[in-house]
Design goal:
single chain; 2 domains; 415 residues; alpha+beta; 15 helices
């Protein structure tokens, strides 16, 4: 059975008031809360989409977990270490690599790059780089043929294409009668990739593992081993587990450490956007203060009658809290529904708006992500809804308290 505070509070909310301005302010407050909640859901979903897109592009080239040796020495017995790591739960694949620095030259053009030696058949199991090939294939890297696969921006800078020759200069010099000279080796471009991350497209070159061993004079050793997990979020725990079991001369890192600053910046930006957009909800919620203050003034006679019939000050306070909470609840639910619908369909809504007005929000010539991504997280939705409703309840306290302090005699004196 409903208490009379609930009945009166709900009746005040849906009753036609003598003062239509109060109803108008109530609707504006409700709409403001809804728009604020919807904006928060949409923006955070887009930021989640950007974060996920960046993570996928980075991890398409980088690794979930990386085992590596000291810079001065190679990782020996790497075949045994690979066999050991693939038996660990959640580790789905492993691939050796050699990492070094060099300079690629072609005609009068030169560009520094990270040189990575790989086994193409193994590399395909730990990274998605093969899916981003513009021309050629990783399988074109054959031992002894000294082929190289480079990024699209690096190819543009060197003015080279498939089949062209480039000279790779490594800092590891060789002693000659004329003194220490850098080592030079001619490579043939057998593939060009584009992952959409300028860091990799302009500064990464892939060669065959055996060619890299000869180039950097590592013998049968490698620089390290790259691991892929079935759940990338487990990378820190898997890395900690490997530290306890691997040889003492091996180091372990994971993607959360390698790119910590980037993902930390994205997380901070997301939190800042949440706070900024929450101010929209706060402004709309505190509009309820003015709505309820005017409602209290308009209903002074009704409050006085209820008090003379035996209603307590706490009951009067509950009536107006219910009235304000209902406004906030309807606005929050409406904003949730609208925000979720837009967030789930943003991949069709944005192209429609772009086609309608003849604009492009994310130009591929400027941004490496040309489509607006969206990833709805229900934890964000519920956090936004609860925070919005709590702000609404907070806004009802002062006018409700003011209504509870109205004295019947004062209120009825001029009626």
């Amino acid at each position: 059975m409903q208490r009379f505070e609930h009945i009166v509070g709900l009746r005040y909310t849906r009753a036609k008031r003598r003062n239509h301005f109060i109803s108008f302010i109530s609707m504006i407050s409700m709409a403001g809360i809804g728009l604020g909640v919807a904006a928060l859901i949409i923006v955070l979903s887009v930021m989640n989409g950007f974060q996920n897109e960046m993570r996928e592009r980075i991890l398409g080239v980088a690794s979930h977990v990386q085992i590596y040796a000291n810079e001065d020495t190679g990782l020996s017995h790497w075949q045994e270490i690979m066999s050991q790591t693939t038996t660990i739960p959640h580790v789905t694949a492993a691939a050796p690599y050699i990492m070094g620095q060099g300079m690629l030259t072609s005609d009068n053009h030169a560009q520094g790059a990270i040189i990575r030696g790989i086994l193409p058949e193994k590399e395909a199991t730990v990274a998605d780089l093969g899916q981003h090939m513009k021309v050629g294939s990783l399988d074109n890297l054959k031992a002894g043929q000294f082929g190289v696969v480079i990024g699209s921006a690096l190819a543009d800078h060197l003015h080279v294409n498939m089949g062209d020759k480039v000279i790779l200069i490594t800092p590891q010099g060789q002693v000659t009668p004329a003194g220490m000279l850098p080592r030079l080796k001619q490579f043939t471009v057998v593939g060009i990739f584009s992952v959409g991350m300028y860091e990799y497209d302009s500064g990464l070159a892939l060669i065959q593992l055996n060619d890299a061993q000869r180039l950097f004079r590592l013998g049968e050793d490698v620089s390290g081993i790259r691991l892929k997990l079935d759940n990338l979020m487990l990378a820190p725990s898997i890395a900690n587990q490997l530290v306890k079991t691997l040889p003492i001369d091996a180091w372990v890192s994971d993607w959360t450490r390698e790119h910590a600053n980037l993902f930390r910046a994205v997380a901070i930006e997301k939190n800042v956007m949440f706070i900024i957009l929450l101010l929209i909800v706060a402004v709309a919620a505190f509009n309820i203060v003015s709505t309820l203050v005017m409602a209290v003034t308009d209903k002074q006679a009704d409050i006085a009658i209820l008090r003379t019939l035996g209603a307590s000050s706490q009951s009067i306070m509950q009536i107006f809290i219910i009235q304000g909470a209902l406004i906030g609840l309807v606005g929050t639910l409406g904003g949730m529904v609208f925000g979720v619908i837009v967030a789930l369909n943003i991949h069709t809504i944005v192209p429609f708006i772009e086609h309608l007005f003849g604009i492009h929000f994310l130009s591929p010539q400027v941004y490496f992500i040309s489509e607006l991504p969206s990833q709805l997280e229900w934890s964000d939705v519920w956090a936004i809804a609860i925070t919005s409703f709590m702000l609404t309840l907070l806004a009802t306290l002062y006018p409700s308290y003011r209504a509870s302090k109205i004295q019947p005699a004062e209120a009825l004196r001029y009626e």
